[in-house]
Design a protein that fits this description.
There is one protein chain. By secondary structure, the chain is of the alpha+beta class. It folds into three domains: 100 residues, Thrombin, subunit H (Beta Barrel); 100 residues, Trypsin-like serine proteases (Thrombin, subunit H, Beta Barrel), CATH 2.40.10; 85 residues, Pdz3 Domain, CATH 2.30.42.10. 16% of the residues lie in helices and 36% in strands. The protein is built from six helices and 22 strands. Strands 1-3-4-7-6-5 form a six-stranded antiparallel beta barrel. A six-stranded antiparallel barrel has the order 9-10-11-14-13-12. The longest helix has 17 residues. The chain is globular and about 65 Å long. The relative contact order is 0.12.
């Protein structure tokens, strides 16, 4: 062995040892292999096959970029012809409750779920929310199913590893790995857009599939990609699990999402000041009825300071319709307190 090769080997061995060595401040070092994680979570992934008639288009996802387009029939279909499309999902209950996207199963005439072991089961839609593009379907497995655990997306950081799973191009359960590229990504003027951006490859057919952290917990639901070609270019988006878990819990309990509503749009205050500035007030909304105006800054809710617009929106959405909240506002340099009865968000509106 030459001196040069001996030096290379001497350099390589310590570097290899560092790959799986705990490093202060780094919670999840790069694993040698994702195989143990795949074995753990693989049985919770499902393929979702949907039959619609050609004249009944699936619901459009709220993102207006390139969503995970369904893989459908390639022939020119007549309006009465059945058209098959596919997506993904994951099991969250041993009794057979499955999370997927609304644009995967909406307007479906028939749904077939394929389990990881190849078993095919008929499914029915148990609840949908068009605004967040989430849905749940139910199968009757005749026994207990393995299921995924929710993770805490609030503690996920840019640069953390992520394992994305689903049914790309209807090939069957597949996995890809990458990192969280960005948090809180907004892609349109929709006030509900707060996504993880991933570089783990996700493709058509992955809609509704989960993204896992290295502990095997779901930290996101894959819902859209940016792609000129329709395939993965390394820019995908997932609904954070904290949002998805709240929506799914409401769908399980009520079949719909009972989100709180004030009838406002807001943005962060300039200069980093705490609170959120109202940029629009719906004429018939709860905020208008108590006199809130464009330009008012909401600085606290029930005596809890409001950090920014996102925090306020999340607080309003998770409020129980009918409850009364105390809003502290700043208007023209003066502070006021107003009691507001939280309404229930109408499905067709995109304001809080």
């Amino acid at each position: 062995m030459t001196v040069f090769r001996r030096r290379l080997l001497a350099m390589a061995l310590p570097m290899a040892a560092l790959v799986d060595m705990p490093v202060p401040g780094i919670a999840s070092p790069m694993p040698w292999s994702f195989a143990p994680l795949v074995r753990k979570v693989g049985p919770t992934i499902v393929g979702v096959s949907v039959i619609r008639y050609a004249g009944e288009a699936p619901p459009r996802p709220r993102l207006r970029l390139s969503p995970h387009s369904d893989i459908g029939s390639t022939h020119k279909a007549e309006p009465a012809d059945p058209v098959r499309s596919v997506g993904s999902g994951f099991i969250i209950s041993s009794s057979g409750i499955i999370v997927t996207n609304n644009h995967v199963v909406g307007n479906a005439r028939r749904i077939i779920v394929t389990l990881d072991d190849g078993t095919k089961l008929p499914a029915r839609v148990a609840g949908t929310d068009q605004l967040t593009d989430l849905a749940i379907v139910k199968v009757e497995p005749g026994g207990s199913l393995p299921y995924a655990q929710w993770g805490d997306s609030a503690h996920i950081e840019v640069g953390d590893w992520v394992l994305a799973a689903g049914n790309p191009f209807d090939l069957g359960t597949s996995f890809t790995a990458g990192i969280i590229s960005a948090r809180g990504r907004r892609i349109s003027d929709d006030p509900f857009d707060r996504f993880f951006q991933l570089d783990a490859p996700i493709n058509p057919g992955n809609s509704g599939g989960p993204s896992f952290d290295l502990n095997g917990r779901v930290i996101g639901v894959n819902t859209a990609i940016v792609s000129p070609s329709g395939g993965s270019v390394g820019i995908g988006f997932a609904i954070p699990s904290d949002t998805a878990r709240f929506v799914v819990g409401s769908l399980i309990a009520y079949g719909s999402v009972r989100q709180g509503w004030l009838g406002i749009r807001v943005e962060d205050r300039k200069g980093g000041a705490l609170g959120a500035v109202i940029t629009r007030v719906e004429a018939e909304g709860p905020a208008a009825r108590v006199g809130l105006k464009t330009g008012d800054a909401i600085v606290a809710v029930n005596h809890r300071p409001v950090g920014n617009a996102e925090q306020l929106l999340r607080s309003i959405a998770r409020a129980r319709p009918g409850q009364r909240d105390l809003m502290e506002i700043e208007r023209s340099g003066r502070f006021y307190a107003l009691s507001v009865d939280i309404g229930q968000r109408p499905d067709e509106l995109r304001s809080y």
